[in-house]
Write a structure and sequence with these properties.
Layout: H1 20-24, H2 35-43, H3 50-64, E1 76-81, E2 85-87, E3 95-97, H4 103-114, E4 118-124, E5 144-146, E6 152-154, H5 156-174, E7 178-183, H6 186-200, E8 207-211, E9 218-219, E10 242-243, H7 248-255, E11 260-267, H8 270-283, E12 288-293, E13 300-305, E14 308-313, H9 324-348
Parallel strand pairs: 1-4, 1-8, 4-7, 8-11, 11-12
Antiparallel strand pairs: 2-3, 5-6, 9-10, 12-13, 13-14
The structure holds ligand 9Z3.
Length: about 350
């Protein structure tokens, strides 16, 4: 259990009114963006589900904010999860992918919900989902059996796992604590992250970002991308990839400056991991960077902050324990401290 009770929000002197009307007035923040970011967003194919995604995010924040009629009041965290793709063709047949199963994000979502948060789970379509880790890896059809001409039932051997997953998932959704939004490409991901961050701006320090998605560092700008399938008969392929601008700093500077921001640093060479995490902490003004090494990422992670670093480990004495449990507990406590501190500063003004 998290150390602190997290329903202190009614004490906060921040304006938390996040009505849907006010969210529609957020306007276009692109005037303030640096040129690389502007180029990226200008070149991106517009989000197909922009209007419905914005509405869903607005309603979810409304439901969990103090302005809500039913007075449910929770902190909100945006958990990003899975890898982003980089299409090589506009009518995409081939793409570059970033490694991530989505397990970190899915498991962490469950622990945030348990700690009382409302979670916007921004995930790669088809990657691991919350409450599904105990489901059988077998093909879907092996979970069911025909019991008559037109009736089907869950196979007894899978019934417990499916019941557990359904209970966890349905309860989180029914309580209004889970909103799942899928992405595939880096274009989709960053546009959705921007939309969510701008929507969360008015939550002040009660909003949080847990950026576990593995985001591509390079991309092919839409206008220089081949429209049709690249032909192998044209010989070897020369690709020039532009650099994806780092959006972490933009979240801090412009999109949601008061939100509590946690990013991840993945390396395969442990000798540079903490140095790189420390650099990211300072460069992007994160509140914490979670450093992990590819092969040991499920066993241990190190949380790097300006105050120092703390390593948390999976409880090896329990076979089904996950490193995300102590990780999220620690981050929830840090978020509590951050809210308290922000509240104190706001009161002094
Ligand atoms: C991570 O480091 C995640 O912990 C993992 C989780 C992707 C390793 P899985 O999904 O793995 O459970 O299989 N995410 C961030 C990776 C990343 O691309 N970080 C960038 C960097 O390291 C910064 S945004 O430069």
């Amino acid at each position: 259990m998290a150390r602190k009770i997290i329903n202190e929000c009614h004490l906060l002197p921040f304006d938390l009114g996040v009505g849907i009307e006010s969210m529609n007035d957020m306007g276009d923040s692109s005037d303030m963006l640096d040129p690389g970011i502007e180029t990226f967003f200008d070149s991106a194919p517009p989000l197909k589900d922009y209007v419905s995604t914005k509405r869903k995010v607005g309603e979810f924040i409304e439901l969990n904010s103090s302005s809500s009629r039913n007075k449910t009041f929770r902190r909100i965290v945006c958990v990003t999860s899975g890898g982003t793709t980089v299409p090589l063709e506009q009518r995409c047949v081939r793409y570059i992918d970033n490694f991530s199963s989505g397990h970190r994000g899915a498991a962490s979502t469950e622990y945030f919900v348990k700690a009382g948060y409302a979670v916007i789970f921004l995930h790669r379509r088809g990657s691991c989902q919350p409450y599904c880790s105990t489901l059988p890896q077998d093909p879907l059809l092996e979970c069911f059996e025909l019991t008559g001409e037109s009736s089907v039932q869950v196979h007894q051997s899978h019934a417990e796992a499916i019941k557990k997953a359904l209970k966890g998932h349905n309860s989180a959704v029914e309580q209004g604590q889970l909103l799942k939004l899928p992405f595939t490409t880096t274009f989709d991901y960053l546009q959705m992250l921007q939309l969510i961050a701008l929507s969360m701006k008015s939550l002040g320090p009660l909003g949080s970002f847990y950026l576990a998605a593995a985001v591509s560092d390079f991309y092919v700008p839409w206008e220089s991308m081949a429209e049709h399938k690249i032909q192998s008969t044209s010989g070897p392929l020369d690709l020039r990839l532009a650099q994806v601008p780092k959006m972490l700093k933009v979240i801090r500077d412009e999109w949601a400056p008061m939100a509590f921001c946690i990013s991840f640093k993945l390396e395969t060479d442990t000798s540079i991991l903490l140095k790189k995490a420390n650099m990211a902490l300072r460069k992007y003004d994160m509140h914490a960077v979670v450093a992990n090494e590819l092969l040991t990422r499920k066993e241990q992670v190190t949380i790097v902050t300006l105050e120092g670093s703390t390593t948390v480990r999976r409880d090896e004495t329990e076979s089904d324990s996950e490193v995300e449990k102590p990780l999220v507990e620690l981050l929830v406590d840090m978020h509590s401290d951050y809210i308290e501190e922000s509240m104190r500063i706001a009161c002094e003004k």
